[in-house]
Amino acid sequence: MDVIVGGGVVGLSLAWRLAREGRPVTLVDPAPASGASHAAAGMLAPVSEVTYTEVPLLRLGVASLRRWPAFAAELAADAGLPGPEALDLRSEGTLDVAFAADDLAALDELAAYLERLELPVQRLTGRECRRLEPMLAPSVRGGLLAAGDSWVDPRRVTAALLAALDRRGVQLVRARAGELLRDGGQVTGVRLEPPGGDGRPAELRAERVILAAGAWSAGLAEVPVRPVKGQIMRLRSPQPLLTRCVRGTVHGTPVYLVPRGDGELVVGATQEEMGFDTRVTAGGLYELLRDARELVPGVTELEVSEVVAGLRPGTPDNLPLIGPSGTPGLALATGHHRGGVLLAPLTADILLGEEGELAAMCSPGRFRDIS
Amino acid sequence: MDVIVGGGVVGLSLAWRLAREGRPVTLVDPAPASGASHAAAGMLAPVSEVTYTEVPLLRLGVASLRRWPAFAAELAADAGLPGPEALDLRSEGTLDVAFAADDLAALDELAAYLERLELPVQRLTGRECRRLEPMLAPSVRGGLLAAGDSWVDPRRVTAALLAALDRRGVQLVRARAGELLRDGGQVTGVRLEPPGGDGRPAELRAERVILAAGAWSAGLAEVPVRPVKGQIMRLRSPQPLLTRCVRGTVHGTPVYLVPRGDGELVVGATQEEMGFDTRVTAGGLYELLRDARELVPGVTELEVSEVVAGLRPGTPDNLPLIGPSGTPGLALATGHHRGGVLLAPLTADILLGEEGELAAMCSPGRFRDIS
């Protein structure tokens, strides 16, 4: 039996895909779908979020984005939902906008760079941007449309995954995995905390433990994963202000706005190296509000419905750790940093045995001393 | 019997003072201490908040501030608290700071004006301000110390009032007063909503109804009271950042910071004419954060523990309506706008029969058509 530690979007997706293959699986999490996946905006935007140094991450993202429509359709069917639109999966693209001459030049370079990677995007004037998104600030001077980029509501995805697991009879143990059980050099299960209680066993034995505990992974095994704090805000609008994702760089920090069909507008996100700190701070909230106003002045009138901080699992090279750990009995599916939602379908495929260059890029073997 | 409609700081104070005098009193409110009194910062700062056109309001405020120490001491004793410090009543004064030359000149004028009113204040240089409050922004160029101004925690005050009412056996009816009962030209009680239920009577008969329903008063009688929305924020600090109240004008809007002994820092408040709208908005929150950062940059690191909007009961001349309404059986204690906490002791004295110039200033008779 596989035991998956961690009930975020990655762990839940894995449990669901393993169960679909008929493999026995148990998932352990004291509060599934309450961490980074609950905070996340759900951008599936590998192209518009690319940076020059991260071509491998771009390739992983593009490969996983291609898997999303089928993943969503199968998940919706398995969860008993009418269709993938119940997950708010949308593909109107991301519009990356610029205010200053410097930023415009950077968009030109980025467009040329993406063309060379055979990922065509469309350069737009400020007027063309506002034709697409009339609520954009008049000061927007140009943009880049990544027409293939998509987004989804992560809360609907994790709710659907929990429903699908339930329908397939997967055991969900609502407890904390306190430590890995080891026998010689082999991982043989997990010890639960608190032990026993509620008729629960104190230990779960497993042929394989898959560590999908996100930012908390380093508490269970020697993995190079650290928490990267993100503060994110949800606004409520009577009708949607935007028809697609909009991102831009304001005062040197990137900000994005993700519109939902029901009028919710997600504004994210800070990136802070603060350890296990999930406080919403005056400074973080100030930056989100300031930058969102700069992009779309009309947000001023919207209600602030939620502000939350989550912890992304960062790795030294910003690539996830997926596959056998090197320690017998222990596999990894962690370190997804900002890409947990985007990379969930690909992660499951790799854990289910997909090989090749993409799997190799994510191999934990690239780091030493994992155990 | 008196029936008081409204369980904010004004209605609760009245009920307590009437009960202390041995008069039978019942208070009606579906959710006492949950409206403007719950949102309020609790500044007792008539001097630093003065504006040139509002000398009557200044005089009311100064008179009520003088009553606060005795009010707090008696309330604490009656509520079974160890002493008035349990209400966080503090009197270190308010520091009004200025950034620009214009603002400095305005402080000079204000100081001269207050001297003429025999309310001496102290003009300080920027350096003197920072000596008093080291966390102030380096850009603060001068200030005005109103040494007599005080502040209190309104939530502790209303909790103490509820405890004191309970100890004195005052009946608290947790229902909404739907309308006033009238017999000919006379008010004879209130009709409760929903009627009956929980063994509650559908009506309460009264010799006198005292309307203390704040922003909701105009729903029960013809009084010139309107809601003035205020958004206010609470930050949490490991230790207090300030030792006294600090206020200033940033980008043309006044902002104040009120420190509590436990490290809480209250930042307020917007003033918006939005009707009965209690949404926390992106624009309101943005202004509070921006202005607080401008005054005290260190707030950036603090946790945002609460954001709430309340509705102040505004009147055409910014003075409260206290006393007989002109309609037999109906008295008023409403329209306190930004001064409910400050003016609560004076309001009770006037309703208990204090006469003279202060009572005359608050007389509802100054407006026509109250009924």
From TrEMBL, chains A, B:
One of its GO terms (cellular component) is cytoplasm. One of its GO terms (biological process) is thiamine diphosphate biosynthetic process. Coiled coil: none annotated. The keyword Oxidoreductase applies. It holds the Pfam family DAO. Keywords: Oxidoreductase, Thiamine biosynthesis. Its EC number is 1.4.3.19. InterPro entries: FAD-dep_OxRdtase (IPR006076), FAD/NAD-bd_sf (IPR036188), Gly_oxidase_ThiO (IPR012727). NCBIfam families: thiamin_ThiO (TIGR02352). This is glycine oxidase. It comes from Nonomuraea jabiensis.
